[in-house]
Specification:
about 475 residues; alpha+beta; 6-stranded mixed beta sheet; about 55% helix; elongated; GPCR_2-like_7TM
């Protein structure tokens, strides 16, 4: 009987343990998971997880649940899930809720987190029930996003008031950027995400062909030809940077800033080089002695100092304005919002070039367009007053026509770029079309329209020795009206 009694006792003990473990597991599973950024004994102090006792804080963060209808302090059994959200390829950013801030965070009983962003023109309301009504009215002055478990974490945030600031306590949430469903069959998505990138790629190839032609052929490698090569290379960089800007959701905010910087700097450099070309042609037509004792290489160095020096100076001013100068109403937003992970610097809290930085980049372009119009009008009047001119003036006249067409093409594309910022789909589509036509137009202006250039290109494929005389092709076609 002893062995049977022992076996029965063992079975009973196993059954009791199974019951206890099962009840414990069911109790744990029934608790609502709440994602906490730091450990239970830590708080988010000065953008870093810090032990609460070391910063004179007795307790950590206790979640406060709010019902869907605005009920406060709803009693919910919960458990903490420690760790940052796994955003994958999506951007991760911080949301801060302080007293009277425009960002409100609410935790629902099912574990979802809602972020309500109020309009800065509306006063922040003190009642959570007023801040989070279940309203889908599109005219409400706010935006809201809901985040499920795994796409957010919340914790208690404390700012020590460094650099003379005020000590603030509130909440911080690290969330993954909301990702809207993309329907690739939609015409708008196809135009923005498929056709537009393809056009950018074709534009890069076409501009590269123009640059190679003017760089390889010795006859075209004069001062104007080198300027055309530099302008096309600047446009290639701007097209590549704009191609990166199209797919902003596949990278982080630092890539946004770098892509914007390359785009605006290269575009500004292209216009400065276009201005240098216009000045050179204008000056040569007004100079009595066109046989100046200065080589094209030295002139190119002088114009390089002007173009790249002005471009670098304006880029430095734009970056300074972007990082250190705030527009009205921007300081309030930057006080409560921060991007990136813990310990990010002020440079990493920037997503794109600000409007003030864009204004610094684009204001010189507007003045360059005005100055180039002056060069065009005065040079055209001078050409119309000329009755006879030699082969050098004939070549300058050819360069003037090419400058005029390049100037018109780039100015129209720049104008449509500005109009695309008005948030009208029609203007954006017009900008996409204008940008797609810019590179083919430059190919026609610089290569196909000039028969002496096409003749030199064909002679390379015919295995013939090209003419090495400096003005040979100009003399051949001077009387044919091929320019």
């Amino acid at each position: 009987m002893a062995p049977s009694t022992t076996a029965a006792a063992a079975v009973t003990l196993v059954a009791i343990l199974s019951t206890l473990v099962g009840s414990t597991h069911s109790t744990t599973a029934s608790k609502v998971p709440v994602n906490k950024c730091c450990e239970k004994f830590e708080v988010y102090y000065d953008e870093k997880c810090t032990v609460a006792e070391t910063v004179n804080v007795t307790t950590g963060w206790t979640p406060e649940f709010t019902g869907r209808n605005g009920e406060r302090n709803v009693s919910v059994a919960h458990r903490f899930v420690i760790g940052l959200p796994d955003c994958g390829t999506r951007q991760k950013f911080n949301i801060y809720q302080y007293h009277d801030s425009y960002d409100k965070l609410i935790l629902f009983p099912d574990g979802q987190l809602r972020h309500r962003s109020l309009n800065h023109k509306e006063p922040a309301r003190s009642s959570i029930g007023e801040d989070y009504p279940e309203s889908e009215d599109p005219h409400e002055p706010h935006r809201q996003y809901d985040y499920v478990q795994g796409l957010y974490c919340v914790d208690r945030s404390i700012e020590s008031g460094r650099e003379g600031g005020e000590r603030m306590e509130g909440l911080v949430a690290k969330v993954c950027s909301p990702q809207e469903d993309i329907h690739w069959t939609d015409s708008d998505v196809m135009l923005r995400k498929i056709i537009n990138p393809i056009c950018h790629g074709l534009a890069i190839v076409i501009l590269l062909v123009v640059a190679i032609i003017y760089f390889v052929l010795p006859t075209l490698r004069d001062l104007v030809g080198n300027m055309v090569t530099t302008i096309t290379m600047c446009l290639i960089v701007s097209q590549a940077a704009d191609l990166v800007r199209i797919f902003t959701e596949f990278s982080n905010h630092v890539s946004f800033l770098i892509a914007d910087l390359f785009f605006y700097v290269s575009l500004l450099g292209a216009f400065f080089w276009l201005n240098a070309m216009g000045y050179y042609i204008w000056k040569m037509f007004r100079t009595r002695n066109v046989f100046l004792r200065v080589s094209d290489g030295r002139k190119y160095c002088w114009y390089s100092c002007y173009a790249w020096g002005c471009t670098g100076t304006m880029a430095g001013i734009a970056l300074f304005a972007h990082f250190f100068l705030n527009l009205p109403g921007h300081s309030q937003q930057q006080q409560h919002l921060s991007s990136g992970g813990g310990g990010d610097s002020v440079f990493e809290n920037q997503d794109n070039i600000s409007w003030l930085g864009i204004a610094v980049f684009f204001t010189p372009i507007a003045f360059i367009i005005i100055v180039n119009m002056f060069f065009f009008i005065t040079t055209l009047r001078f050409i119309n007053r000329m009755h006879t001119y030699g082969r050098i003036h004939h070549k300058l006249r050819c360069s003037f026509v090419m400058f005029t067409l390049i100037f018109a093409t780039m100015s129209i594309a720049w104008l449509f770029l500005i109009l695309s910022w008005l948030h009208f789909d029609g203007l954006l589509y017009m900008h996409i079309v204008a940008n797609a036509l810019q590179a083919p137009c430059l190919l026609y202006i610089c290569v196909l329209r000039q028969k002496h250039v096409t003749f030199l290109v064909k002679s390379c494929f015919r295995d013939q020795t090209p003419q090495t005389a400096e003005w040979g092709d100009e003399m051949t076609y001077m009387n044919g009206g091929d320019y």
